[in-house]
Every structure is written in C-alpha cells, then in structure tokens.
Amino acid sequence: MKKKFILEGLDCADCAAKIEHAVNKLDGVKEATVNFMTQKLVIEGEDEKMPTIMQEAEKIVKKIEPGTVMKKA
Amino acid sequence: MNKRLWRIIIGAILFIVAIVIDVNIEWLNIALYLISYIIVGGDIVMKAVKNIFRGKVFDENFLMSIATIGAMLIGEYPEGIAVMLFYQVGELFQSYAVDKSRRSIAEAMDIRPDYANVKKNDEVIKVDPDEVQIGDIIVIKPGERVPLDGKVIEGNSTVDTSALTGESVPREVEVGHEILSGCININGVITAEVTKEYGESTVSKILDLVENASSKKSQSEQFITKFARYYTPIVVIIAVFLATIPPLVIDGATFSDWIYRALTFLVVSCPCALVVSIPLSFFGGIGGASRKGILVKGSNYLEALAEAEIIVFDKTGTLTKGVFNVQEIHPEGITKEELLELTSYAESYSNHPISNSLKQAYGKEIDNGRISDVEEISGHGVIAAVDGKKVAAGNIKLMKKLNIPCYEGEAVGTVVHVGIDDKYAGYIVIADEVKEDSARAIKELKEAKIKQTVMLTGDTKNVASKVAKQLGLDKVYSELLPGDKVEKVEELLAQKSAKGKLAFVGDGINDAPVLARADIGIAMGGLGSDAAIEAADVVIMTDEPSKIATAIKVSKKTLRIARQNTVFSIGIKIIVLILSAFGIATMWAAIFADVGVTIIAVLNAFRALNVKNL
C-alpha cells in the first residue's frame, strides 16, 4: 500500500533527509521518500502495519521538525 | 516571515549601536549586547532547549546556541551576536529562496482550469470542470482556459498551448479539431463537445505527473544527505577535543583560545546549507525543463540524461511525422501536374491512406462527373476512366497484369505506377515525411557528445537507410517486429560503458516495453497520449525530437550547478575548519562558510531554472 502525505511547513532540507531516513527504518516500511521541494512524504508499506507506521511517522516528523504538520494528501 | 525580518532589523540596529557608542560603562555595553542577542536569537535558543527535552540534541539550533553563548562567555560579544544575526539572515534567505522556487514552479504549472461553461438547452452555466460529463457541450470564450479535452463543433480560433508545450506559436483550431485542456483560447468563441472527463483530461494528467515528480532522488542528493549525516557529528566531536585536549597538553595554550577555535567549528558544522542547494538545483532544472515542454519524472532521470551515451529512436512518429505524403512525381510523356491529377482522380473512390495523400497533394476538389467505370483490383490497384482515358494506378503487379513495362528500380516509400491507355505514364512515390527538426536534433545530440544515435523501425531497409542517411544517424535496424525492438535495445545496452546511459525515444504507442527497458524512456508528443505519459520517464509534450537535445542540455547544466555547489560548499567548509583549528580563521570566516556559502549556493541553484540560453 502506498500512502501520500504533505509535510506542511517543512523548511529544512537536512531535516527532510533525516525524516526519510527514520521513516525508512520503521517496521513494515518498504520504501519511504521525502521530497523536500514538494513537501511530500510517500510511504510504501505492508497493509496491516500501515496504521502503526502512520502514527510512528507522525511522531518522527514532530520530533525532527516540530513546526511541521503531517497531512493526508 | 515578516516578524522574523523585523526582529533581525531591530536586533541589528541595537547591535550596531552597541558597537558604535562603545560606552566606558561595561555593564551598559554588555546589557546592550545581551538585549540585541535576545531579540535576534532568543527563538533559536528556545527551540534548542525544547528540542533537548524532545531528545533531539545535535540540531542546528543547539549548535548555534552553544557557539554563540560560548563566544559571549569568553568575552567575544560582537562575534557571538554577529553569528546569530547572520545565521538568522541565512535562514530567512534560505526559506525565502525555497518558497520562491516552490511558487515559481507552481505558477509555471498553473494550468488548472477554474470552471467550464456548459451549454444546456440554449443556456450557458458555469460549473466545476469535475462535474462535466463526456458528450456535454462547452463554450470557451476568448481569454479562457480550455477546461476539458474536446472536439470543436462550432467556431474557430487560435489557442495558446505554451503552458503545455513551451511552444510560443499559437495553434489554429477549427471545427473538427481536437482541443486540449490547459490551453488558452485567444480570439474566437469556440463550442466543443467534451471527449474526456476532467480526471482523464490532459490537464489532470500533466498536473498529476508534475506533482508526483522528483520523489526519486538523484545520486548527488543521496551523496550530500549521507555526507551531512556523518559530517555534523564528526565536526562536533572534533570541536569537543579541540576545546579540552590542547589546553591540557600544550604548554602555554589557553582555554579561551582553544574554546574559541572549537566554537568556530560549531558554527561551520551546520549541514543545512549543504543539503538544501542540491534539491533546489534539481527542482529548478525540472521546472526549467517543464517550461520548455519537457516533463521529467524525477531528479534521477534528469541526472541520467546527462550521462546518455546512446540514443535510440523509433522511426515512425518520432523522427518522421507518421503521415504519408507524396514525395516524388516521375512522369513519362506527360507533365507532373497531369500525372498527379489523373492519378488522384483514378484513386479518388478509395479510402486508402495512399489515395488520401494523393488527393491532398492534388489539392483541388474532385469532380465526380469526370470519372466512370471504376474497377478496384484488390492487392493491385485501381483502373478507372478519367476524361475518357483509361487510367490504371497501382503497384508493379498491376502493371505486369496489364502488360505495361514500368520502372522497376528502387524507390524509398510506396510506389504508385500509372498507365494511361495502356502506356506507361510514370510513377509517384508516397512516403512518410521526416520532421522538420529531426536532422537538427541529431546534429545537436552529436554536439552534446552523444556517442551513438540509432534508429529502429519496422519499415523496409530502403526507406530506413534513406532516412538514416538524410538525418545522419550512426546506425539503423530495419524490418523489425515490435518484439525485436526490445532485443535490439538489450544488445545496445550491452555495448555502452558502465556509467553511460541508454535512452529510447518513442511515440508511446506500442513501445511501452522498450520505454521501460531503456535506462531513460522518452515519449514524444505526450499531448493526448496517456500511455506515453505513464510508461515514460521523460515526456516531451511537442512533436519535436530536437527537444531531446534541449533536455540533455538542461540536465547537464543542472548537474554542473549541483556539482559546483557540492564542491564549493564542502570545500569552503573544510578549508575554514582547517584554518580555524590552527587559529588562523576567526569566527567571521566561519560565518561566511556557513551563511555566505548558503546564499551563494542557493543563488547558483536558481540558475538551473533559467533555460533561455542553454
């Protein structure tokens, strides 16, 4: 399953890379990409683990770049 | 944003005042410095503290806070404040630049129609393009954007397709023509029947492609983010050693001197400047290319284009127009005009593409009264009486059947032999026409140092090698079945160097497997072809093969900029680090290495968006 999110307020390119790195390490994630310029986070992961992945991803975003809001695209 | 700018300005003024007046009362001086520091950098310190509680220590807020507070603690007030001030200016500039770049591309891609004028029972109502259905009648007034793909049923006009194709010459449309959503109607009112729903219309397809582009990262970007991951911790660790070990080990070394050097390290340790300039360059390059009507689906493909070594073209529809036209007329005993006229008449009853191209070349209305006794002989041609003369038009088999000796040499294309009253009157060659800019495209690719240009075609050897010669292609493979094309591409893939890339250019019809197999699949004439947009990595919106050379130029320029930024920003940072370790570079140099480098790199990245002079 592929889910797309908008990271509103994503302002720092290095943070984008860190978010991508951290989300990729989550259990059940096949591939995650953060596009700094388009402020998009795309997560491809196992269907049944998706709800947890989304929760964890949101925590990661909040921790690395506190001003950013993760929205469904 | 504005609040931040005001804070910087007020803080800067206070800072200057504190330096200029330089009162003898020390506490007043320090108070002034502290106030300006709090105004300028208070939020950074606050963020740093908050982030520590969140368990995130080595972020740039923290590094900047430590560097500046440390500087003030060892008495270097002006430097501490200046670092914070310039850091804030740099951050502001960076977010302004990123914002501007995001916006300029959104604007270039602002092709979304707001409404559609739907005509129902002689009444025209404005509705959301999403609600319009296939078969609905829409009215497009001058100045309005075409909301959905459709077919013109009334009126004629010129439309501006530049938003889709980068083509500045407007296109004429009249009854029967297709119009594509996203174009702007310039002068006349046109009424059209909708042929595609909004979600399937060209404008939606393109927006979808652009919005989802570039999630695949270029190698330069992967390198720089990886570099940043190790760079910051290493620099911070070295800074800790610098602050503690030399004063203990070296005779006469003071803590304040070495702490100053360590703090300089912290100022240079922020990775953001480094990281931001690369995606910004690629984003600019992708945006610049889209202004030329070239849609690139990701940074990685833009990067790969620069490494293209072999470009493989499909012939029909890519290098040639895919439309058959009269190319040569060789009359015998009559004039060219007569031969064309009589042949067109004889063939006029047929609906075959060949008869259509004859009629088109003749260009005049066919007077049916002049033709009689039409007899079509399948697989041979046609025999008809035109103005009382017996005209036979067809292939060699027809001539042999009628015992008319004819030209039997080679010709490029389909040959129509003509006999008049059982006497040979010459032949007409009909062939696919080479596009106007195909030769230029190949020439420009050679200039761009492409090693091999190859053409694949299902057409006959004669036709293929003539086209290849005319265009100056290096290699040609003819008489291929669709499946053979994949095989040939695989053969060519084996020939290229390890780093080089192979690009395949097709029109997107029937060549999806080849597009997928090539390192870079380029689809031409993307307007209107969904299959092409989906299968390809790069979509060229117009029919011009010369855009491939343009795309390669954009790619090379972007890569050059990205490389300059990488070398320049890493280089300056390392030089300043070495100099400050030896106590040569001051904190001012460190500020330049951080903020100055960011600003220069970002400005440099902006050049990628400019595609006017490649």
UniProtKB/TrEMBL annotation, chain A:
The record's keywords, sorted A to Z, are: Metal-binding
Q: Which GO terms describe its molecular function?
A: metal ion binding
Q: What is one Pfam family matched by this protein? A: HMA
Q: Which residues form the HMA domain?
A: 1-69
**Keyword flag Zinc:** no
Which domain of life does the protein's organism represent?
A: Bacteria
UniProt name for this protein? Heavy metal transporter
**Organism in which the protein naturally occurs:** Geosporobacter ferrireducens
Automatic annotation (TrEMBL), chain B:
Q: Which InterPro entries match?
A: ATPase_P-typ_cyto_dom_N (IPR023299), ATPase_P-typ_P_site (IPR018303), ATPase_P-typ_TM_dom_sf (IPR023298), ATPase_P-typ_transduc_dom_A_sf (IPR008250), ATPase_P-type_domA (IPR059000), Cation_Transport_ATPase_IB (IPR051014), HAD-like_sf (IPR036412), HAD_sf (IPR023214)
Transmembrane region(s):
5-21, 27-46, 230-250, 262-283, 566-585, 591-609
Q: Which GO terms describe its cellular component?
A: plasma membrane
Pfam family of this protein, just one?
A: Hydrolase
Q: Reaction(s) catalyzed by this protein? A: Cd(2+)(in) + ATP + H2O = Cd(2+)(out) + ADP + phosphate + H(+)
EC code(s) of this entry: 7.2.2.21
| Compartments (UniProt record) | Cell membrane
| Domain annotation P-type ATPase A: ranges | 112-211
Record keywords, A-Z: ATP-binding, Cadmium, Cell membrane, Magnesium, Membrane, Metal-binding, Nucleotide-binding, Phosphoprotein, Translocase, Transmembrane, Transmembrane helix
**Gene3D superfamilies, alphabetically?**
Calcium-transporting ATPase, cytoplasmic domain N, Calcium-transporting ATPase, cytoplasmic transduction domain A, HAD superfamily/HAD-like
Q: Supply the name of the protein.
A: Cd(2+)-exporting ATPase
Lineage of the source organism? Bacteria, Bacillati, Bacillota, Clostridia, Peptostreptococcales
